Amino acid sequence: MKFSCPKCKSKLEIQKTFNKKMHVSCEKCGIEDLLEYSKNIDEVFLEFLSRFDEGLVTKKGVSENLKDEGIIRDEKEIKEMIEKNNPDKTTESILFSKRDYISQYKVLKNPEPKMGSSVEELGLDESISNHLKEIGIENFYKFQQEAIEEVLFGENIVIEAPTASGKTEAFLIPVIQKIKKESTGGVFALFVYPTKALSRDQYPKILKLAEKIGISVQVFDGDTEQIERREILENPPQVLITNFDVLHYHLWHQTKFSSLLSSVRILVVDEAHVYSGIFGSNVHYIVKRLKRICSNKIQFIAASATLEDAKNFCEQLFGEKMNIIKGSGKKGQTDFVMLFPSLRTQRALMVDLTKKMTEKNHKTMIFNNSHLNSELLAIQAKKQKINIKVHRAGLMANYRKSVEQEFKDDKLQAISCTPTLELGIDVGNVDCVISSTIPINRLTQRIGRAARKGQRGYAFLALGNDPISQYYKNHPDDYFEDVEKTYIDPKNPFVEEFQVLAMACDKPISKHELKEHDEVIKEHLKQGNLVMNNNRIIANFDKITTLLNDYSIRGIGKSIDIFLNEKKVGDRILPIALEELHKDAIYFLAGTRYRVKDFGYPQKNFAKLERISRDYPYYTKALTEEWPTIETVFERRKAFGIEVAFCKLHIEKKVYGYVNIELGQEVTQGQKVLLDTPLEYDFITKGIVFHAPRPINQIKKSEDEDYTEASGYHATEHVVIEGSNMITGGVSQDLGGISLGTSGLIFIYDGAIGGNGASKALFDRFESALERSMFIVKECPCKNEAGCPRCTFSYRCGNNNEFLHKHSALEILQRINKGEETKLIEPTEGDRPLV
Q: Which residue spans adopt a coiled-coil conformation according to this UniProt entry (predicted)?
C-alpha cells in the first residue's frame, strides 16, 4: 500500500522498528516521525497526518533524539569516516539515509601482489612453459613461485590466499610438472573438493591446462555416468577429481575404484576451511585410511582463503607437518559499510540494500547464515519486484546449477544464498555482496566475490537484531579482530567408533597396528563387530554393513527423508529434523513454504509435505525441553572465580510443541501450539557446565524470588552463547544450552551428536565470552525487564523466550567478571530446565 507525503507528495516509508515503534519518513523531503506501534497501518498514517497538521512533524523532529540515543549516527561522524574516500551517490545515499546506524565505512583496497620469477626461471617442462605463455602468463606471483618450488621439492604445503588470487595455478602447475617427470601409470594425484558442484566447476579449468601438456583428468563422483566410470576403471587418469564422501564409500566397500587409490602420490584439498567440526573429524580419518592403503608416501597440498591458523589446523586434519604459504590477490576497490538496523529488522535492511543495488544494475549476492533466512529474504525481495532466486544446500543440484547459470548470463539480478556460494563456484561477474553477521575472515572471502574485473565493488555487512550485532555496533573494531576458529575433534567417540570399523573394512588390521585406537578395537571385538582371523582383525560385514551404510560423514545420526507428492526432495539429520519436520511444521524449499502433513518418526524415517497458500501468514519454530546428565568430566578450571568443567554429556531432548511466527517479522516469540504426542530423542555429546552466582540484589527486590533467580540464569545462558559467537569463530550456531531452574547450573553443549569441538573452543576462551556477555546486556538500551532480541532473547530458544530476567542476568555476569567464586554441584531431577 502506498502513502503520499503530505509535504512533497512523494512515497512515504512506514517501518516497524525493533523496539515496537512505527518509523514514518519521506526520503525526498526528509520529514519523519516515530509513532506507537499499530498493526493497522492506516491508523499509523492517519496519526502521522494529524501530527503533521499540528506542526509536530519536522525534518529533524526525530533525528536529534535518535542521535542522542545512539540509534542513528551523527552526520559529522559519518563525514569523518568518509574523509577522502569519495563514495559514489549510491553508497552516499545509504550512509546518510538515517534509517540505520553506520558502524563503519571504509574503502577496501588490496595491495598489488608481489611478483615472483618469470615462467622460464622455474625450470618447468617446456610444454608447460609454452602453454603458460600462450595464455598470457609470463610471470608468477611471489606466493605462486614459492608454492611451486615447495611442491616440486616434495614438501607438504598450505596455500592461504584470497578468492580469485591464483591459488589453483599455484598447486596445479607443480602437480602437472611432477606427473610429467615421475608418473609410472595409474592415479598420481587426487584433487578433492567439498562438493560435487565445486568439483564440476573446477574441472574445465584443470582440464584446460592438463590436456595441453598431455595429462589425463577425470571427475569421479555420485553424478559420474556408468560409461565414464567404466572408462576411469579401465584407463585410470593421472589426475582424479572427487570428494571425501566418495573416498569413504569406496574404501570401505573395497570396490574396483578403491584399488585405483593405492598409486596416489599427491592429495590436493581445496577449500580446506570447510572441513571444520564433524565433517573435518571424519575427513581426518578418511585421510588416515587413504594412507593405509597407499603404496607410496602421500604429499599433501591444501588451499584456503579463510583459515585463522591454517598450518596447525591442516597438520591436525592430515596428521602431517605442513609449511604455510601466504599470498594476496588483485581486484578493484570495494566500498565497505557495516550497518546496524536500529529502525527496522535485519532482513528489511538486506532487502532494501538489494533493491538499491539492483536498481542501479549492480549484480548482487546476498549471504544468509541459514536455510530459513535465505528463503525468507527471497520471499520478501520478490514482493519488492527484485529478480532474485535462492541457492542453498538441500535444493536439487540441477536447480542450483540453473540459478548459477542465469546469474552468470545476466538473466538474474540477485541470489539469496547460504555459505554454499562462499566456495569457488563460478557465477560470473559480481558487483555487490551483502552479508549477515559472520567472522571477518569468512566475510573477506564473501567480499572477494565482488569487483573481480577491476570495477568498483560494494560490500555491506548487515548486523542483525541479536546480542552480538549490538555489541559490534558499539565496538566495531572488535569485529575485525574476531577471526573464525576452525576445529575438529578426532576423539569424538562416535566418529572414532565408526571410522575404526571402516578401517577394518578397507584392509585387515594387523595385531600391532592402530595402537592409538586400542580401546575402541577391543570394544568392537567384544561386540562381534570385528573378529580375529589369522592374527589379523577383520570386519564382520554381516553385522556392520547396515550400520556403516546409515552413517553420514557430514553429520552423525539417521536422516529423515522428505517427500513431496511421493517424490524425495531432500533430507535432514536427527536431532534437528525433529524441530523442523514435526507434524504441521512449516518447511521452506526453494522459496516456497510447505506444511508437514505426516511425520513417520520414530517408527519410520520420513516426512511428507503438502502445499499451502502463498498468503498463509506464519512459519514455525519448535518448543523443546532438554535434560542433561554428566557422564564424564574431561577437564576442570577456573574462569575468573567460577569453576567450569568440560564434560561428556547425555542429553534427553523432547519436542513438545511449536510456535507460529508471523512471516516477515523477525520476532523471537510466537503463538504456542502443543503436539498431540511429543517427540523424544536422546544423544551423547560434549559440553561445558558452570555454576553461576546468585543475583542477590535482584532477588531482594522481587516478589517472586524463584522466578527472578531462574529467569536470570536462563537469560545468562542465552547471552553467554551469543557472547561466545565470533570469539570462538562464529560457533554459537553449533551450540545448545540448558539452565536448570534455581540451581545456578548452566550447560552449553555441542549440537552435533558426539561433539564437534565447538564447546571446547568456548571452554578455552571462556573469560572473553563472559566479559563480552556482560557488555552485551549492560549496553542494550531496552527497558524491558525480560530484555529484548538484542540482549537476552535467542532465536534458537526452545522455550519461546519465556522466563527471562535482564537485570538478574546483568548482576550475575557482573558478579562473575568481578571474580565471585562458585563450585560445581551435581544437578537433581527437581531442577526444572529453562532451555
A: none
Q: How many Å apart are CA 723 and CA 736, to the nearest integer?
A: 13
Nearest to 376 by CA among 570, 592, 562, 582: 592
Give the closest residue to 490 by CA, choosing from 646, 684, 285: 285
Q: Which residues of 226-246 are buried (b: 16+ CB within 10 A; e: fewer)?
A: eeeeeebeeebbbbbbbbbbb
pTM of the model: 0.74
DSSP per-residue letters across 737-752: EEEETTS-EEEEEESS
The three cell numbers of residue 811 are 548482576
CA 27 to chain centroid, in Å, comes to: 35
Look at strands 157-160 and 21-26 and give their pairing: unpaired
Helices (H), 749-796: 758-764, 766-779
For CA atoms 723, 727, 732, 733, the dihedral sign is: positive
d(CA 388, CA 385) in angstroms, rounded, equals 9
Give the pLDDT score at 82: 87
CA distance 189 to 197: 20
Query: Cell numbers at residue 344, please?
Result: 527496522
Please report, as a single letter, which amino acid is at residue 90: T
What 8-state DSSP symbol labels residue 112?
A: P
The three grid cell numbers given for residue 388, joined into one nine-digit string:
532474485
Residue 300 has pLDDT above 90, yes or no: yes
500-533 tens-digit pLDDT? 999 999 999 998 889 999 999 999 999 999 999 9
Mean pLDDT of all residues in the chain? 85
* Helix axes of 277-293 and 493-506: crossing angle, nearest 10 degrees: 20
Handedness of CA 556, 558, 562, 563 (dihedral sign): positive
Strands (DSSP E) along 364-513, which ranges?
A: 364-367, 388-391, 414-417, 432-435, 457-462, 509-510
Cα separation, 640 vs 691, whole angstroms: 12
